[in-house]
Amino acid sequence: MNRRSFLFLASASVLVSSSARAEVLIPFAEAPGRAFVPHAQFVPQQCNDWCWAASCSMIFGTLGHPTDQKKLVDFLYSDLACAPAWQTRDLTRILDNSWIDDRGVPFRSRVEAAFDQENGVMAIDDTLVVGELMRKRPLLYASKDHCLVIVQADFVLTPNGPRIIGMGALDPDPTPSARLVHLPYRALTEAERRPAFLGGEMMYLAAVRI
User: Could you tell me the domains of the chain?
Assistant: First the structure.
């Protein structure tokens, strides 16, 4: 895969939501193309280190299977420890697995494509990311110390397909100022959009299907 596909450049965004469930999303200001998940489920993390569990719970809920983040924590830590997912392979174990949702419905989640720097996986590009968002499927994002759910991308069309120029996410642990106005959405910074091997912060990005 061409490494340039991970060069997500800076742009501005305007985002709006409710406090418990994302119902309205105003995409990035003027852009040639945009893809977004308009009714993504928002799940706040229930402890300081559960951003990974809340983010996976958001993805499952948005894809039609609401699943308490505590079930996901119990999968890694049987004592429900307030602890991070130490390895990105733990995220893949959660996202590529069989579960029973909060309504008692069994479902099978799978990772369709991923960038996983820790494990040498580079099987995702801008075309796939845009396609997933257009089909209303969010993606899981992880930096070295935080997880988010990608719900929005602005892009320009090139002869080689779409090139992403901005991304927006649901953050399970919003900044204090965002928390005051109940805005779980935020734009990713330029550093967050750039893979770690190119000097950025992105360690993991996964497309998930059920």
Answer: 3-209 (3.90.70)
pTM of the model: 0.83
Q: What pLDDT, in 10s, does the model give residues 89-122?
A: 999 999 999 999 999 999 999 999 999 999 999 9
Q: What is the SS3 string spanning the chain? A: CCHHHHCCCCCCCCCCCCCCECCCCCCCCCCCEEEECCCCECCCCCCCCCHHHHHHHHHHHHCCCCCCHHHHHHHHCCCCCCCCCCCHHHHHHHHCEEEECCCCCEEEEEEEEEEEHHHCEECCCHHHHHHHHHCCCCEEEECCCCEEEEEEEEEEEECCEEEEEEEEEECCCCCHHHHHCCCCEEECCHHHHCEHHHCCCECEEEEEEC
Cα–Cα distances (Å) from 87 to 105, 109, 116, 124, 146, in that order, read 28, 19, 10, 19, 12
Distance CA 84, CA 112 (A): 24
pLDDT tens column, 3-35: 434 433 323 232 223 333 343 344 444 557 999
Q: What is the pLDDT of residue 179?
A: 54
Cα–Cα nearest to 94, from 66, 126, 55, 150: 55
Residue 124 reports pLDDT greater than 70: yes
